[in-house]
Automatic annotation (TrEMBL):
InterPro entries: ATPase_NBD, Ppx_GppA_N
Protein name: Ppx/GppA phosphatase N-terminal domain-containing protein
Residue ranges annotated for the Ppx/GppA phosphatase N-terminal domain, each copy included: 66-202
Gene3D superfamilies from the UniProt entry: 3.30.420.40, Exopolyphosphatase. Domain 2
Species, as recorded: Enterococcus larvae
Highest taxon of source: Bacteria
Pfam short name (any one): Ppx-GppA
């Protein structure tokens, strides 16, 4: 089983693209770029062709500059990519596999929430708190109680939605955008009875607030090495007004010369967050630079399926299952590999699986295929590169269901079809 000690991870959102190196247990920012992806149904990719070219170039440049192989790359796309058709996503996957050699994987809202929960959890705080993550097209709010998730709210509005509705927000500093944006956003926000003393505001907001001179104070609510600053809602609102009315876009961009385009969404993002905080009665804000990749490195998957030869590699599969259980990863199938028995010299059955004729093996295999459809990823255990007939069927199911395929042992696969896949697991 390959446990990689170095990976290049990509967080591809609707407007912000991040590349971070995960090496020796540490996640280090590597590169960031802003692309305001535009939906374009006249394009075979469902997004603007120039956006597509920029995305491809961003991936190529970072893989080259980081000196990692494509087998050490893992991609987590969200936002606008979830809104594309199956055909459009297939075109993107094929192009990026052919031109870059990577598996471009779009994760569900559910899995994105899971990673955000893992990224920031304050287990020693005895009151309820919230985590706010604003993307280009979507926004997630997760409520916690004693570090346990109590409620999730997913909203189809983001920075791009504000910029599209208010295209002059970065040019006209005289207009009272706060009220107009508040009215616009409130129509999208659901009613919410949850109460929270503070919210952790993720996605590079600590860096932004420090660069833009917000009135940050030391975090007096709880001790956390990654959550060291705090700002009151009133101070946040006051500085937002100054940024909107007294600070030009050029000044904002000068704060972040390595990626000035990020600041194009700063006003929109801050006023969107301001409306959410006010609507839900949040009086204290803890800005954070954590993102979903922080969660990925803490727990790579929520639920998986394991495939491989139960006849040839049962000991290796057992080792993999123990590794996953120690990481708190749910194994949907196989649930148990105790008391293996060989039926008809070919098919392996375990405790709780009884068959008396070959046709009954179909039910077991069908349950396994259904589990693949529910999984975040499918792990193929192939220590010597061997791929059996059943495993070929399971690879086909993964491709049909657009599932992340991970070979845990070897890239020397005894199989003549070239397809997007990853090699190895995170340490």
């Amino acid at each position: 089983m390959i446990i990689q000690d170095k990976n290049l991870l990509f967080d591809i959102g609707s407007s912000t693209l991040k590349a971070e190196l995960f090496e020796k247990g540490k996640l280090v920012p590597f590169s960031q770029k802003t692309i305001f992806f535009t939906k374009d149904d006249s394009s075979e990719y469902g997004i603007d062709k120039d956006n597509m070219q920029e995305l491809e170039q961003f991936l190529l440049e970072n893989i080259k500059n980081s000196s990692v192989s494509v087998s050490e790359v893992k991609i987590f796309a969200t936002g606008i990519f979830r809104k594309l058709t199956e055909g459009q996503m297939s075109k993107i996957k094929v192009r990026l596999f052919e031109n870059v050699g990577v598996d471009f994987e779009v994760i569900s809202h559910e899995l994105e929430n899971f990673y955000l929960e893992k990224a920031i959890s304050v287990t020693d705080y005895d009151k309820e708190y919230a985590v706010l993550n604003i993307g280009g097209k979507t926004t997630e709010i997760v409520y916690f109680n004693h570090g346990i998730t109590s409620k999730k709210i997913n909203i189809d509005i983001g920075v791009g939605s504000i910029l599209k509705a208010f295209p002059d927000i970065n040019m006209d500093v005289t207009k009272e955008y706060a009220k107009e944006i508040k009215d616009f956003v409130l129509k999208k926000l659901p009613e919410n009875s949850e109460k929270s003393n503070f919210a952790i505001y993720t996605g590079g907001e600590l860096n932004y607030m420090e660069l833009a001179s917000y009135n940050l104070q030391d975090n007096s609510l709880f001790n956390h090495s990654d959550l060291r600053k705090l700002i009151t809602f009133q101070d946040f609102k006051y500085r937002n007004s100054e940024v909107v009315h007294n600070t030009t876009l050029e000044e904002l961009q000068s704060f972040m010369p390595e990626n000035p385009q990020w600041m194009n969404g700063a006003r929109a993002c801050s006023l969107l967050a301001q409306t959410i905080f006010e609507k839900y009665g949040i009086n204290n804000i803890v800005p954070s630079d954590a993102n979903l990749l922080s969660g990925v490195t803490k727990q790579q998957f929520s639920k998986v399926v394991i495939c491989g030869s139960m006849r040839k590699h049962l000991d290796d599969i057992n080792e993999l299952m123990n590794f996953l259980k120690n990481k708190n990863i749910d194994i949907l199938s196989p649930k148990c590999i105790k008391n293996p028995k060989l039926f008809n010299g070919e098919f392996v059955v375990f405790s709780g699986q009884e068959i008396s004729k070959p046709e009954e093996s179909f039910k077991i295999e069908l349950e396994h295929i259904k589990a693949i459809e529910e999984a975040d990823a499918v792990l193929f255990c192939n220590p010597d590169g061997y791929i059996g007939h059943s495993t070929i069927t399971e690879i086909g199911a993964c491709i049909a269901f657009n599932k992340r395929i991970v070979f845990t042992n070897s890239k020397d696969i005894d199989f003549d079809l070239c397809f997007p896949k990853e090699i190895g697991l995170l340490a």
